[in-house]
Amino acid sequence: MEITDKVAIVTGAGAGIGAAVARRLAAGGAKVVLADLNADSAAAVAESIGSAAVAVGGDVADEKVIQQLIDRAEEAFGPVDLFVANAGIGGGPGLDSTDAQWSASIEINVLSHVRAARLLVPGWVERGEGYFLSTASAAGLLTQIGSAPYSVTKHAAVGFAEWLSITYGDKGVRVSCLCPMGVDTRLLQKDLIPDNPEAAELAVKAVTTAGPVLSTEEVAESVVAGIDSERFLILPHPEVLKMYRHKGSDYDRWIDGMRRFQAALQA
């Protein structure tokens, strides 16, 4: 898919990967609607981009807000060609995660993707084209030591993207799933497991020990390259594929290795 002259919506675009992807899409000639719970942050990024971007504040787990994004895009630029479901949150630690933490992670990390697809895919099928990009995580292919809600919901995000591609790929709908490891964002710095410093330290150490921490700009370049070649898995950290293959080749051995890795981190 060529991004030039395409209309895109990017959620979680007030900072981090979302902001970098929005800027890179606009630099490539796309028109972009930026969405973020923090309306001021989204507006600031949109202003830095210029006339090719507009901002909308709101909770993208809410289907009404997603519809507002679509309406705003059509009003400003035309029909939506690309939806980047990037907004995401960390979550609780382990079995002590509350129901509220589980619900919040499921809502934003999974159901926001489902609701966006529900609103956009039928129209894309009718047009014969459209592109859905899901930001999951390497945790969705592997796991996330230290956070059960994050690990489980990122697995679910990968699973939904996979289902979407299988179901609608022959009808013109392209799907990619972005699965990076460490990226220099607030999520890695302090927001992966809020209010639980011990679990957060373990989770962050697991990520930063496993591979390099990339800049958001590096990830955005991987995203555009993945869209251009219409790859399902977009892996800014190539080593994730090797880890994923090891996991699939001998699941028990992989789990044993992850237990040893966790013990080493805790020590």
CATH architecture: 3-Layer(aba) Sandwich
Strand content: 5-15%
Low-confidence stretches: none
Return the CATH class: Alpha Beta
In the CATH hierarchy, what is the superfamily?
NAD(P)-binding Rossmann-like Domain
CATH fold-level topology: Rossmann fold
Strand order, biggest sheet? 3-2-1-4-5-6-7
Element order: H for helix, E for strand = EHEHEHEHEHEHHHEHH
Q: Write down the domain tally.
A: 1
What is the residue-mean pLDDT, rounded to a whole number? Answer: 95
Termini, distance in Å? 47 Å
Number of strands: 7
Helix content: 55-70%
Structural class by SSE content:
alpha/beta
- Major sheet: 7 strands, parallel
Q: Give the number of helices.
A: 10
**Gross geometry:** globular
- Radius of gyration (CA) equals 18 Å
Describe what this molecule looks like in 3D.
- There is one protein chain.
- This protein is of the alpha/beta class and 267 residues long.
- The protein has one domain (7-266): Rossmann fold (3-Layer(aba) Sandwich).
- It contains 10 helices and 7 strands.
- The chain has helices at residues 16-27, 39-49, 63-76, 99-127, 148-168, 186-191, 197-210, 216-229, 239-249, 251-266, and strands at 7-11, 31-36, 53-57, 82-85, 130-135, 173-178, 233-234.
- The chain has a 7-stranded parallel sheet, with helices on both faces.
- The longest helix is centred in the middle third of the chain and has 29 residues, at 99-127.
- The relative contact order is 0.13.
- The model has no long low-confidence stretch (mean pLDDT 95).
